[in-house]
Design brief:
By secondary structure, the protein is α/β, with parallel strands linked by helices. The chain has 9 helices and 8 strands. The protein has a single domain, classed as 3-Layer(aba) Sandwich (Rossmann fold). Helices cover 38% and strands 21% of the residues.
């Protein structure tokens, strides 16, 4: 296995930014004994890929520091891309930085060009926690040709999200003694609402939330709203005995297991 951190100039953001990438490798086992390097590392292999966005205040190393995501990725033989775009509501300002585009267009091109990642829509899963869950769904809706599945760990999907979920995030930040997570700026006013492109395929969604999360009601409503709008829901699951990173790691494991099962059935 290999874990890499790369710094590059993002034209969508107009600044240098980081991305961390995990590539699975062979795990020593009796089955691998005696095999050549060419057999262990086939040059034509293209990996299914999980794009994993952080929660509010997160960077590209947040999941690596706080969870066992690499063990999960190795188990399911997944590559993982950890973007670092500093959230910013994942908005695309017509006159400025474009945070959704930085992931769904630019970083997708960078990573599929430089690393052995599949280019099939069904092989790309995008997910995240809290604001990252919103960002994951946003990216999937912006580029429905690139992301077939979304994992939402919390987050929101409803009309009026700027005056509802975003303000609730900021109230929670204030309660914790932190500065606001979200700048409710003109870019958010213009394009914060989530909507599918007419005639485009909808991503399948796995949605989970912790019952003790102060913003759990937004995730509960998101499950109802997604179903009402015709999104294929793989699962919508509430975790009553876990919170924080314990919830995120358990829920991510459940989501990847469900997606792997669906892939095997297909």
């Amino acid at each position: 296995m290999a874990t890499l951190q790369m710094n590059f100039l993002s034209m969508k953001l107009g600044m240098q930014t980081n991305v961390s990438v995990f590539l699975p490798g062979f795990v020593p086992s009796p089955d691998a004994a005696g095999k050549s390097n060419a057999a262990l590392y086939p040059v034509d292999e293209r990996f299914r890929t999980l794009w994993l966005l952080g929660s509010a205040c997160g960077d590209d190393g947040q999941w690596l520091r706080e969870s066992g995501v690499l063990r999960l990725a190795e188990k399911h033989h997944l590559a993982v891309v950890f973007p670092c775009v500093y959230e910013k509501l994942y908005s695309d300002d017509p006159k400025g930085q474009k945070f959704t585009g930085a992931i769904a267009d630019e970083l997708y091109a960078v990573c599929t060009g430089m690393f052995p990642l599949s280019r099939s829509r069904t092989d790309h899963i995008i997910g995240g926690a809290e604001l990252g869950a919103y960002g994951a769904l946003r990216c999937a809706l912006a580029r429905p040709d690139r992301f077939g599945s979304v994992i939402m760990l919390g987050g929101a999907y409803e009309r009026g999200i700027r005056d509802g979920y975003f303000k609730a995030l900021n109230r929670e930040a204030a309660r914790l003694g932190l500065p606001p997570y979200c700048t409710l700026d003109d870019a958010a006013d213009n394009d914060a609402e989530l909507a599918a492109q007419p005639g485009a395929p909808l991503p399948s969604v796995w949605l989970g939330w912790a019952s003790g999360d102060p913003l759990a009601d937004y995730a509960r409503r998101a499950s109802e709203n997604l179903a009402a709008d015709g999104f294929p829901l793989i699962a919508r699951q509430e975790y009553g005995d876990l919170d924080g990173w314990d919830f995120r790691e358990k829920a991510l494991a459940d989501a990847l297991a469900a997606l792997a099962h669906g892939k095997e059935e297909a």
